[in-house]
Amino acid sequence: MGHPHPPQPPSPERSAEVRRRFAEEARSERPDLATLCLLVGAEADGALDEPALDAAQVELDRLAGELPFRPGTPRAWAEALRDLLGERYGFRGAAADYQRLESSLLHEVLLRRRGLPILLSVVWLEVARRAGAPVFGVALPGHFVIGFGAGRGAETGDAAADRVLVDPFDGGRLLGGKDAEVLVAGATGAELRPSMLEPAAPLEVVSRVLNNVRAWAAGRPEQSAVGLWAIELALLLPAHAARLRYERARLLVQRGEFVVGAGELEAYAEVVGAVDDGVAEAVRGEARAARAMLN
Asked: pLDDT tens, 13-26?
């Protein structure tokens, strides 16, 4: 199979509207994970209009409606979701999914039933949440999974013992005692720490989705436009790394927008100069180099 063409971007007007709504949702009291992920999709894919956004939400509702009524224990919930999403509908991931932008777009994952661990986890989370399950996302380094049962602060006593972790990328496989440790070691070589099992907030999940999009684009210079919108959406999140501004400036220069990029580099150098003069000087050097490209 040849390289599939990534989706075509929306018009500038549509993009502006998507970003306005993304920023509004991200700053609301209770940001909605599905809405934010679908708006990321709308920034990637101009075909994702209002009816298509609604259809994706309706599909999540429909899947939730197919779960048996209140399975009960965390384990029963985990098994019910595995049977429905993993077995009956075939939602799962494979190595090839890491090569496709669509694997990071919720509407495409709902359609293809394939995606990155974090997007498959979003499907599981949103379907389970709509059905009333005690569910939370778990941002293990390198491999996102989900948990059922009591979330935050449940490391002590029976609540922790009652929690069940599930790997949506593996069709909803229930993770036993050492499985999470193996996943973390395999992805990063690191050890599993209890803090890694804390529930991930919706904005953390969206930030990680956008990181994945940026990583996909970074390895494909011809997709720098995708990298740019992923950074610009991340900058709309209430908490973001200052370094994103630097990444955006460098990307603008790479795309041939030398004057704008140089200006942004200089602005970033001002900010970072308060903390680290050496870094600031290096960034100013990059700005000078960018301006020199105009000659």
From this structure: 999 999 999 999 99
- Give residue-wise pLDDT tens across range 36-84: 999 999 999 999 999 999 999 999 999 999 998 778 899 999 999 999 9
**Helix axis angle, 258-273 relative to 277-292, nearest 10°?**
170
CA atoms within 13 Å, Cβ hemisphere of 236: 23
Question: Phi and psi of 200, rounded to 5°?
Answer: -90, 130
Q: Residue 180 — very low, low, confident or very high, per pLDDT cuts 50/70/90?
A: confident
Rounded distance between C-alpha atoms, residue 219 and residue 105, angstroms: 18
Rounded CA separation 290/153 (Å): 49
Q: Which residues of 136-166 are buried (b: 16+ CB within 10 A; e: fewer)?
A: bbbbbeebbbbbbbbbeebeeeeeeeebbbb
Contact call for residues 107 and 164 (beta carbons, < 8 A): no
Q: What are phi and psi of 223, to 5 degrees?
A: -105, 30
Q: In Å, how far are 135, 145, 212, 259 from 200, measured between CA atoms?
A: 11, 10, 16, 39
Cα–Cα distance measured from residue 105 to residue 45, given in angstroms and rounded to the nearest whole number: 9
> Exposure of 206 by Cβ count < 10 A (0-12 exposed, 13-18 middle, 19+ buried)?
buried
At 129-144, the pLDDT tens digits run 999 999 999 998 888 9
Is residue 67 within 8 Å of residue 152, measured between CB atoms? no
